[in-house]
Design brief:
By secondary structure, the protein is of the alpha+beta class. It has three helices and eleven strands; from the N terminus they run H-H-E-E-E-E-E-E-H-E-E-E-E-E. The strands form three sheets. Strands 5, 6, 7, 10 and 11 form a five-stranded antiparallel sheet that branches. A hairpin with a 4-residue loop joins strand 10 and strand 11. The longest helix has 22 residues, at about 5-25.
């Protein structure tokens, strides 16, 4: 019995190599030959620079009054979420806040949608080169573990339609 796996792999590698050489040939660094018909940007140029922080660097938790829990009590906190946009305009698509235990396992996230952000803060847009601060005061329901960290997962869509994700985490006290 003859094996064709090796020939198939060689053909695939050959096609991939030729396509890479052809794509590099389309990317002219400059000259007077006219405009480029195809070019490839480096990932650094495509991805916006997004910096996120939770202030203060260690958030306090206080009991949420009026909720009776069997396990760990319901808690609330207050903090600022600071977002610095170093690229094109960004829209916040969604933010998920989650309390985590010492092993960084947590419960269900509290999800804040773009429409929730727009209703509370006026707009979910962070302009190019801008910094915005969003103050949140979430209340987390009854838990089965002692929270050690607060995490935030932020999802953005830029004005070009590309999606981006950032994660930030701070300890609780």
């Amino acid at each position: 019995m003859v094996s064709r796996g090796c020939a198939t792999n060689r053909f695939g590698i050959l096609v991939l190599g030729i396509s890479l050489i052809a794509s590099v040939g389309c990317d002219r660094p400059g000259g007077t030959e006219g405009t480029d018909r195809a070019s490839f940007a480096s990932p650094i140029m495509v991805s916006p620079i997004i910096t996120t922080a939770i202030v203060p660097q260690q958030v306090g938790l206080s009991p949420a009054l009026g909720i009776n829990c069997v396990g760990f009590p319901a808690v609330r906190t207050q903090f600022d979420l600071v977002i610095v946009n170093g690229g094109t305009g960004l829209f916040i698509s969604q933010i998920g806040f989650r309390l985590l235990d010492a092993s960084q396992v947590g419960g269900s996230p509290l999800v804040v949608s773009a429409s929730d952000i727009s209703a509370r803060f006026g707009t979910a847009l962070i302009g190019p080169g801008a910094q915005r601060t969003f103050t949140f005061d979430p209340q987390f329901g009854c838990g089965t573990f002692v929270p050690a960290f607060l995490s935030a997962d932020l999802f953005f869509t830029d004005t070009e339609g590309s999606e981006h994700h950032k994660h930030v985490m701070v300890p609780t006290r």
